[in-house]
Amino acid sequence: MQGWQEPGSRFRRIERLRDNSATMPPTIYYIRHGETDWNVAGRLQGRHDVPLNARGRAQATHCGEILCDLFAKASRDPATLDYVSSPLGRACQTMELARAALGLEADGYRSEQRLVEIAFGEWEGLTLAQLHQRDPQRLAQREHDKWRFMPPGGESYEMVAARMRDWYANLAADTVVTAHGGTARGLIAHLGIAKPAAAPLIDIEQGMVYVFAGEQLTRYS
Q1: Per the domain annotation, does 151 fall within a domain?
Q2: Could you tell me which residues are beta bridge partners of residue 12?
Q3: For the sheet containing 28-32, what is the strand order?
């Protein structure tokens, strides 16, 4: 497995060797939702419905512009792809702004519950600094094994990967997705792009488009 390429090209990659004789699965154009005020404050959002801030809205529009460029280079009509979002408002806002940048009707997409962000349960709304004070023992357990750790009332990355596996198994067409960092990491683990223990540590940035093509992942900015 190769790591991210150093800056200097327009994209960086994580990739593994794959069987070129196999039929390629649908391509996923994956966008993490734009920035929120909770992102800025370092709060765990999980299932809380926090809206995009001004920078987040600009990031969402930028992602639509990236898609527009990618589709133009591939001579693809954006209207021929499927569009699916997490049901959380910050992901839906991101999808609508990205679609507008593509010249598509803002509401022409589906909502998919399995794309919802990893649940942090009782930890939602707290920062890591606050957790160091309030729940240091369980926070240490999380740092030891992020893949299997489940916050009180929340879920593990292992559980997120299972629902992403179910969603991916039913994917029938090339799809634009707006969702979250946690669900991206679950998909990365399911596809074997990174090992389960490493997947929760991968930084999924805002304002970028991640293209999943089989076991290859390319990031465009």
Answers
A1: yes
A2: 219
A3: 11-15, 216-220, 209-213, 28-32, 175-179, 82-85, 110-111
DSSP state of 212: E
Helices (H), the chain: 37-41, 54-73, 89-101, 128-134, 136-144, 157-169, 181-190
* Nearest residue to 32 (alpha-carbon basis) of 216, 215, 202, 213: 202
- Pairing between β-strand 175-179 and β-strand 28-32 as defined by DSSP bridges: parallel
Active site residues: 33, 117
Residue 1 has pLDDT above 90, yes or no: no
Residue 6 has pLDDT above 60, yes or no: no
Q: What is the distance in angstroms between the CA of the first residue and the CA of the last residue of the chain? A: 22
Is the pLDDT confidence value at 181 over 70?
yes
Other residues' Cβ atoms within 10 Å of the Cβ of residue 118: 25
Which residues span the domain enclosing 165?
25-220
Residue of higher predicted confidence among 22 and 25? 25
Q: What is the model's pTM? A: 0.90
pLDDT attached to residue 8: 36
Q: Which two tokens stand for residue 149?
A: 């750790």
Give me the mean pLDDT over the 91-118 stretch: 98
Phi-psi region of 214 (alpha: psi -120 to 50; beta: other; left: phi over 0): left
Which CATH number belongs to the domain containing residue 88 in this structure? 3.40.50.1240
pLDDT tens digits for 74-88? 999 999 999 999 999
Compute the C-alpha angle 107/108/112, nearest 5°: 90
Is 211 inside any structural domain?
A: yes
Q: Is 151 helix (H, G, I), strand (E, B) or coil?
A: coil
